[in-house]
Fold this sequence. Notes:
Blueprint: H1 2-19, E1 28-34, E2 40-43, E3 46-50, E4 52-57, E5 61-68, E6 75-81, E7 91-94, H2 100-103, E8 105-107, E9 115-118, H3 123-135, E10 141-145, E11 150-153, E12 156-159, E13 164-176, E14 179-189, E15 204-205, E16 208-210, H4 216-225
Helix pairs in contact: 3-4
Amino acid sequence: MKAKIILSSVLVALLIFLNGSDVMAAKKKVHFVVSESDAKIFVDGRLMGAGQLDIIVPAYACITVKVEKVAYLTEVIEFCNKPDFSPPPKNYNLVLQKDDAYDASEATDVANIDLEIKTNKPELEAWQLLSQIITSYFDVVEVTDRETGYLRTAWTVQTFKKNTIRTRMIVKLGSTSPLTYKIKLVSEESQKPQTSVKSDELFREWDRVLRKYKEVVFECQSRLAN
């Protein structure tokens, strides 16, 4: 019996030595409140609630909380309940910031798809008009070839707090009789600031378009149809 008591005492002393005064850390509860009542709250990748949530941080563990709402920047917070880490707070208030990329853009159904334009204008006039419209929106044309009916602008890039948007225009000849062109407004995002325009692997299609380019497709359609 004395041996068991001594062994238990040694184990307790060892735990105290390893963990300081926190021999058996208890789980901690964080009352998490978001400024937007309908913001989605994910805990370790699982949707757990919206607006506010009592979050349990297990002993000797860390959890990741992600908050999302359309038109606001996504926020990620980590809470750790481990020795040598600051203990999780009893209350945590998160104020979401507006998404500046969202505010500078509009939702659209004409981005990243080929749109056919039929025109009765002579080929030279139609090509010159298309080129004129596109260069009024885009400063640099990367490739242009009237004989094959192909035009591609260089990427234009705009960076935001937590996103980078790149945009370009592509024109292809559809047919010569009747004369048709296929135009495509390419709009992509990286979801990271200051992304290099050459990092193709970091960009993906975006279902929005920066407001400065919102009229280019409609202008091409209306002016070539007249």
